């Protein structure tokens, strides 16, 4: 389900949209990156996934993050929907307009990340959840997919051309998660362009601005304004 309308979870007239998030979740990172770059203010509520607040489950019964509750009660509970909503309001760096290819091309690349790559990532990061699956095979499958990114970066600095775009920001959080499984192993892999692309993103000010550690939100209290006013 991409969007539902539920007046029971409306933030209230004139209120900021409410974002339910979890700092380390790559899907939630996507949403925060787009909200931050667009300058779209919201009330961020940091969630502990093992103790999901009732307000989150009321807004989106599937109970995953990110979830963005708009002021009119509309609920966006898919990370790409939140990215596209924020960027449609303000896209100062052209994330929706790649220098090579189209938005549809970017979305197809992100779908491949969310499908085959994410499946392989989960099976090598959480081997205990997948008995009978060899994590070494899954890691090799993930690397095979990343070689496609390596080829893309051979003659351009970003996945879809000369500037960072939605595909870079939607995929990088998952590559970050994969690289962190074994940092020494990752640095030894034959994908220097992907490694450089990832390091540039990880060391950038934008990522730092969306990764503040926050206390878990408590029912009946206000969240924090995000992105943080400067």
How would you characterize this protein structure?
The protein is α+β, with helices and mostly antiparallel strands and 230 residues long. It folds into two domains: 107 residues, Glutaredoxin, CATH 3.40.30.10; 105 residues, Glutathione S-transferase Yfyf (Class Pi), Chain A, domain 2 (Up-down Bundle). It has nine helices and six strands, in the order E-E-H-E-H-E-E-H-H-H-H-H-H-H-E. The protein has a six-stranded mixed β-sheet. Helix 1 links the parallel strand 2 and strand 3. The longest helix has 23 residues. The radius of gyration is 18 Å and the shape is globular. It starts with a strand and ends with a strand. The relative contact order is 0.17.
CATH architecture of the largest domain: 3-Layer(aba) Sandwich
Contiguous low-pLDDT stretches (5 residues minimum) are: 1-10
Strand order of the largest sheet: 1-5-4-2-3-6
Kindly provide the name of the CATH class of the largest domain.
Answer: Alpha Beta
Helix and strand string, N-terminal first? EEHEHEEHHHHHHHE
Main sheet summary: 6 strands, mixed
Number of domains: 2
Structural class: alpha+beta
Secondary structure layout plus pairing:
Layout: E1 3-5, E2 18-21, H1 26-38, E3 42-46, H2 54-59, E4 67-69, E5 74-76, H3 79-89, H4 103-125, H5 135-152, H6 166-181, H7 183-187, H8 192-202, H9 205-209, E6 224-226
Parallel strand pairs: 2-3
Antiparallel strand pairs: 1-5, 2-4, 3-6, 4-5
Helix pairs in contact: 1-3, 1-6, 4-5, 4-6
């Amino acid at each position: 389900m991409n969007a539902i309308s539920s007046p029971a979870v409306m933030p209230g007239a004139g209120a900021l949209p409410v974002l339910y998030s979890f700092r380390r979740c790559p899907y939630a990172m996507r949403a925060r990156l787009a909200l931050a770059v667009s300058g779209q203010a919201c009330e961020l509520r940091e969630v502990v996934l093992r103790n999901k607040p009732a307000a989150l489950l009321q807004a989106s019964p599937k109970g995953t993050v990110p979830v963005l509750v708009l002021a009119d009660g509309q609920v966006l509970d898919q990370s790409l929907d939140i990215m596209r909503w924020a960027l449609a309001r303000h896209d100062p760096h052209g994330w929706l307009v790649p220098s090579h290819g189209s938005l549809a091309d970017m979305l197809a690349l992100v779908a491949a990340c969310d499908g085959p790559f994410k499946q392989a990532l989960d099976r090598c990061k959480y081997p205990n959840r997948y008995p009978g699956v060899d994590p070494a095979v899954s890691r090799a499958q993930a690397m095979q997919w990343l070689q496609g990114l390596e080829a893309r970066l051979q003659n351009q600095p970003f996945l879809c051309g000369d500037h960072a775009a939605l595909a870079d920001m939607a995929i990088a959080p998952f590559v970050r998660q994969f690289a962190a499984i074994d940092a020494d192993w990752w640095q030894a892999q034959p994908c220097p362009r992907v490694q450089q692309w990832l390091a540039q993103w990880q060391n950038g000010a934008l990522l730092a601005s969306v990764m503040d550690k926050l206390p878990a939100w408590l029912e009946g209290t206000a969240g924090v304004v995000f992105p943080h006013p400067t």
